[in-house]
Specification:
single chain, 267 residues, alpha/beta, four-stranded antiparallel β-sheet, 37% helix
Length: 267
Amino acid sequence: MIQPIDAVGREIAEGIRGVFFDIDDTFTLNGRIPAASFRALWDLWNAEITTVPITGRPAGWCDHISRMWPVSGVVGENGAFYFRYDQGKKRLERRFFIEPEEAIQNRRRLRDIGDEILKRVPGSALASDQEYRLFDVAIDFTEDVPPLSRESIQAICDIFAEYGVTYKVSSIHVNGWFGDYDKLTMTKLFAREVLSVDLESMRDRYLFVGDSPNDEPMFSFFPHSVGVANVKDFLDQMYHPPAYITEHPGGEGFSELIGLFLARRGK
C-alpha cells in the first residue's frame, strides 16, 4: 500500500544520506524546472546531502548537469553511464557500462530500428535530444508530438522487443538500447565507485524519487522510494510502485518532499 509522504517520520529522515531522483516530470513540471524544485536541490546540497539525478536524458545533457547543477554526479541514458565533475581537478569523469567503440556499432543498428518504428507507428518521432545520445534511441510519444495512445506506445515497445532491444517507458519517451543494464545497475556502480557505499546493505539510507515505469527498478530496490503525484497515471502498469506518494505533481511534488524531509531533520 502506497503511503502519503507524511508517513516519512523523523527517524527515517535523520538516517538518510542521499537523494537519487529522476528528472522529467519528477524534478520538472510541464517541461520546465520550477524555481521551488531547484531551490530544494540547493537546500539538499547545502545540508550536505548527496544528490544524484538518475535520468533517461542524453550524454550531452548530463555533461552540463554534472558540471553546473549542485549534484554529486549524474546517471544518464537509463544507466548507460555516470558522469561526475571533480571540482578540485577541474575534470569531468566518465564511466560507461559499454565501451564507446561497441556503442558506435549499436547506435547504427538502433537508428535503423528507430526508423522502422517511425514508419510503423504513426505520430511517433525521434526525440529532439537524440543527437546528444551515445547509447540509446529515444522515441518521442508526447514531449514534442501530440500524445500517442497507450496502444501506440505498446506498439513501439513491441517493435523494440522484436529486435531483442532492451526498452523502458518514461513519461515522455520509449528508450531502447542493447545491453544488460538499467538505472539501478549504474546507480549501484556510482555508489560503490564514487560514494564508497554498498547500496545492497545501505539502501535504507537513501531516498529515490521518480514518476514513471522506467523508475520501477529503483522503486523496487529502495524501501524509501517516493513517487510524485503524477505517478498515479502509471500505477496500473507497475508491479513495484513507490512506497510513498506526494500530494503535488512533478517538481512541485519534489520540493514538497524535500521541504518535509529537511524539516523533519531539523534543517
